[in-house]
UniProtKB/TrEMBL annotation:
Family annotation (SUPFAM superfamilies): Obg GTP-binding protein C-terminal domain, Obg GTP-binding protein N-terminal domain, P-loop containing nucleoside triphosphate hydrolases
Assembly behavior: Monomer.
Domain OBG-type G: 159-331
UniProt name for this protein: GTPase Obg
Binding-site positions, Mg(2+): S172, T192
Source species of the chain: Blautia hydrogenotrophica (strain DSM 10507 / JCM 14656 / S5a33) (Ruminococcus hydrogenotrophicus)
Chief place where the protein resides: cytoplasm
Keyword line: Cytoplasm, GTP-binding, Hydrolase, Magnesium, Metal-binding, Nucleotide-binding
Domain of life: Bacteria
Similarity comment: family membership: Belongs to the TRAFAC class OBG-HflX-like GTPase superfamily. OBG GTPase family.
Taxonomic lineage of the native organism: Bacteria, Bacillati, Bacillota, Clostridia, Lachnospirales
MF terms in GO: GTP binding; GTPase activity; magnesium ion binding
EC number: 3.6.5.-
Entry binding sites for GTP: 165-172, 190-194, 211-214, 281-284, 312-314
Amino acid sequence: MFADRAKIIIRSGKGGDGHVSFRRELYVPNGGPDGGDGGKGGDVIFEVDKGLNTLTDYRHRRKFHAQDGEPGGKRRCHGANGGDIILKVPEGTVVTEAQSGKVIADMSGENTRQIILRGGRGGKGNMHYATATMQVPKYAQPGQPAQELEVKLELKVIADVGLVGFPNVGKSTFLSRVTNAQPKIANYHFTTLSPNLGVVDLDNSGFVIADIPGLIEGASEGVGLGHEFLRHIERTRVIIHIVDAASTEGRDPIDDIYKINRELEAYNPEIAKRPQVIAANKIDAIYDETDSPVELLKMEFEPQGVKVFPISAVSGEGVRELLYHVQSLLNSTEQKPIVFEQEFFPEDVLITENLPYTVTVDETDAHTYIVEGPKIEKMLGYTNLDSEKGFAFFQRFLKDSGILQDLEKEGIQEGDTVRMYGFEFDYYK
């Protein structure tokens, strides 16, 4: 069965707890603290697998989680880091947050691997808490908790050209003629219940073409299997309307094109603006030449800039001319792949938590400001400050949580230092 949607629950690994222990050696009656740090929890990573073309692996298993970090040990032993979990998905999979529907990751184009949830940082052992006044610390830092999130996976087919048309107009026959695809073909409605992809070879060039299953009126509102099918056309750069020019089932081809365009416009106005071409199919079944339906189509749509090609998907007549025109349309449109931008950042959940923090001036240096508290510690544990996205989130966090405002109240000036749990930053507006 073709599977193009799934809903799963993912969880990163919990950080291992820091350890409380003290040196116990012969002739060392009062050994100092030697509790080791806990290991980092594993990340949840999505990765593109070129060999996959469905989301079937996620239809029967719903929960996926990375390994927890191991706790620290005696003699400064560091706990082992938890193993990451790598979830393989086909190219074109869009990961969204289940409740809001906002995009977390689009696994297409150059984005072939992305960390979705970061594991919790391991807690520090008691060896870090020894001071001149506290030489026997009986406290170690617990590991940071895991992050859990329910996400939706949607496969949006990656194809240069999309075939659209009402059921039974000959899309599957056309696809089987021009590509190496082998779709099921029969004379009944909704034969195609999943998108079929094929590669068209034209001399030294070619393109990927997708047969989008038959549309009906109301598809953009979810009638029938409307939304299931329309999502697959979102990435296409050129649209081929296939119509039954012979009206073998009594349909009006001109009316059909307007109806499909209305559905595309209602679903996503950007799709309706993309270059289109009309394939007037089944010309081998036209017996009355006095009132040519192909000429009527040309008179209606060519003044609008949409070319009409009379074809027979069965005999192959007119197909080659149509394909060369489609190739020219592709050559004249931007080849940059359509990628859905990230809208939901799992780390943002931390900002909404009502955890305390403090902003103080360092007693030994009036130009250094210290920001501490569980809110800060938790944010730093989940954020990779070495990455561009991670640092952008960190800056947004400082602003949205009110930390920058509190620093300004304390009198911070440009060039002063901000210190947070081992991280130091220069402050600039």
